[in-house]
Amino acid sequence: MLVVRSTHVTEPMLANTSLSLIVRAGAGVNTIDVNAASRRGIYVSNCPGKNSIAVAELTFALILALDRRIAENVTDLRAGKWNKKEYSKARGLFGRTLGILGYGNIGREVTRRAQAFGMRVVVWSRRFQEPSDPGSGIPDPGVTVVHSPEAVAEQADILSVHLALAADTRDFVGESLLKHLKPGSYVVNTSRAEVVDHTALANAVRNRGIRAALDVFAGEPASSTGEFSDPLLALPGVIGTHHIGASTEQAQEAIAAEAARIVRVYKETGKVPNVVNLATTTPATHVLVVRHRDRPGVLAHVFDHLRAGNLNVQETENIVFEGAEAAIARINLDGKPPAELLQTIARGNADILNLYLVKI
Ligand code: MLT
Question: What pLDDT is stored for residue 104 in this prediction?
Fold first, then answer.
């Protein structure tokens, strides 16, 4: 088992290991080569929701820092400059519109804080278009759901990005979306750098007075200290933090406890909480249901014949009835076994009570 935070887990690291579980002590799994792990049958698990409040708190720190220009205030004060005239030009948050892209745990926590500040909240999330579970498709009261990211950008005074990094979210906030923002709007990214096209953001800062606050950078070190530079940070109106969104004591403790729970459950039960790399669909087309006496060799007999018939087992489970006299096996197959093969299986072992095939 391997538990990692910022360390990148790459394919060569997995090549000659007997690793069976990688736990990301955080929410995002983009630092792990999940496809390589899946090809080797290694579970990848994460700790979702445990640091959402910490990220939401930093999001608000950045929003306030942009509006009151806290970083610039401090820099000038430290340089011996008093400039109340310049720094009195804040807009204020009350009554402004916060646009949120992505409405997972973090988007929700940001919403609650925005509402406490008297802000209007407009969100776009795929989950409102294709709700996979009914509960996840319900926004908090008072939230305006719109049907495109562009509609969020058009209404927002502040755009806050809370999307997970995936193939379809890379450069999601690009030129075509940024141009829908009003001049002088603020952009906050505490998710992943790759979700925002930094060249397009730099152009928006230079040409349209957009202010930006970033906690994440494409070239950020995987170690906790090191050399770092990013051209965006040289632009007036852009501020940054050191990818510290998830890093409060409370969040670190919650993450550590969740990582330990995952390891313990795996050790004690062989099951892995929060797995992110199991297939949601498989090539299975049929389920073979076998009701049998709970004796050794029954399933070996079934599997031997399936192999002889060149049928690949996808997922399988075997449930034992009370008293452990009988059991039922559900075997997902990547094809339809011919009727003769089913007869051979059924008649070839006296412990098979009956079997039938279901198309899925
Ligand atoms: C997360 O994925 O939860 C955070 O980005 C963790 C981190 O600080 O690296």
Answer: 93
290 occurs within a structural domain: yes
Co-location of 91 and 25 in the same domain: no
Residue 329 identity (one-letter amino acid): A
State if residue 26 touches ligand 1 by the CB under 6 angstroms criterion: yes
Which one of 113, 208, 220, 301 is the catalytic residue? 220
Number of domains in the chain: 3
Q: Which of 24, 192, 292, 305 is an active site residue? A: 192
| 6 in contact with ligand 1, CB cutoff 6 A | yes
Ligand 1 pocket test, pick from 162, 220, 243, 250 with the greatest ligand atom count within 8 Å of Cβ, gives 243
275 assigned to some structural domain: no
- Cβ–Cβ < 8 Å for 314, 283: yes
Q: Is 194 a catalytic residue?
A: no
Mean pLDDT by 10 residues, the chain (360 residues): 95 95 96 96 97 98 98 98 97 98 95 98 88 61 93 98 95 98 98 97 98 95 91 96 97 97 97 96 96 97 97 96 97 97 97 96
Task: Report which DSSP code applies to 179.
Answer: T
Q: Exactly one of 69, 180, 198, 243 is catalytic; which is it?
A: 243
Spatial neighbors of 255 by CB under 8 A, at least 6 apart, are: 25, 26, 47, 50, 51, 246
The residue range of the domain holding 144 is: 52-245
Position 37 in a domain? yes
Which residue puts its alpha carbon closest to atom 8 of ligand 1?
A: 246
Predicted pLDDT of residue 160? 98
> Helices in 43-146 by DSSP H: which ranges?
52-68, 70-78, 84-87, 105-116
- Cα torsion through 52, 176, 206, 98, rounded to 10: -40
For this structure, is 243 an active site residue? Answer: yes
Is there a catalytic annotation at residue 192? yes
Residues 81 and 206 both lie in one domain = yes
> Based on the domain organization, do 82 and 202 belong to the same domain?
yes
**Ligand 1 centroid distance, CA of 57 (Å):** 14
